[in-house]
Design brief:
Layout: H1 2-30, E1 50-61, E2 64-76, E3 79-91, E4 97-108, E5 114-125, E6 128-140, E7 145-155, E8 159-168, E9 174-184
Antiparallel strand pairs: 1-2, 2-3, 3-4, 4-5, 5-6, 6-7, 7-8, 8-9
């Protein structure tokens, strides 16, 4: 009788130990970001909240339909860092459309911030199609303007504009800052 009671205690202890180990690993993997381990320097070593392959997201913000596609993306505390991005913005009110391809970028889920690097794209503003290339671009959600930095080229086949910085406002106005160069060509 004593031997069977001893085996029961060992079995119960082993099961309790397994449950505790399982609970520890579940807590470690699912714990909130603030509770995760930190390195000795105090930097967070946790993985991003989500890693996404082939992101394709659409959302309407202030009457504009945004579609963002990316080969890969990581979401970390509301900020998405993506590579090989395609952004398509259509404004139903004025018919303007922006198609921007970027090597990489960073944006927030709420649409408050969008920054991209390695830009090649086009804009259809007031039914006029222009091609755009730039080292960097950002979108100012308050004014609805696109800001292109670091050497920007805008062309429509007849006129080619180059400048350090270009701003395309919501109404379709193009402003070049920091010096500009314009080249006109005649179509025959």
């Amino acid at each position: 009788m004593a031997l069977s009671a001893f085996r029961g205690k060992i079995t119960g202890t082993a099961i309790l130990l397994l449950v505790c180990v399982f609970a520890f690993y579940m807590y470690r993997d699912l714990a909130p970001r603030a509770a995760r381990d930190r390195t000795s320097s105090g930097q967070d070593t946790a993985a991003p909240d989500a890693v996404i392959d082939r992101l394709d997201a659409s959302r309407t913000i202030d009457g504009r339909m945004w579609r963002v596609q990316a080969v890969s993306a990581e979401r970390d505390e509301g900020v998405i860092i993506a590579s090989l991005i395609k952004v398509d913005v259509r404004d139903a009110a004025n018919g303007n459309e922006f198609l921007i391809n970027a090597a990489s970028g960073k944006f927030t889920e709420d649409g408050g911030m969008l920054n991209m690097l390695g830009i090649i794209g086009s804009a259809s503003v007031d039914k006029r199609l222009v091609n755009i290339s730039s080292q960097a671009a950002s979108y100012d959600s308050k004014s609805g303007a696109w800001i292109f930095d670091g050497g920007t080229r805008i062309s429509d086949g007849e006129v080619s504009l180059r400048g350090k910085r270009a701003v395309i406002s919501e109404d379709g106005t193009f402003v070049l800052r920091g010096g500009a160069e314009a080249i006109w060509s005649e179509r025959r």
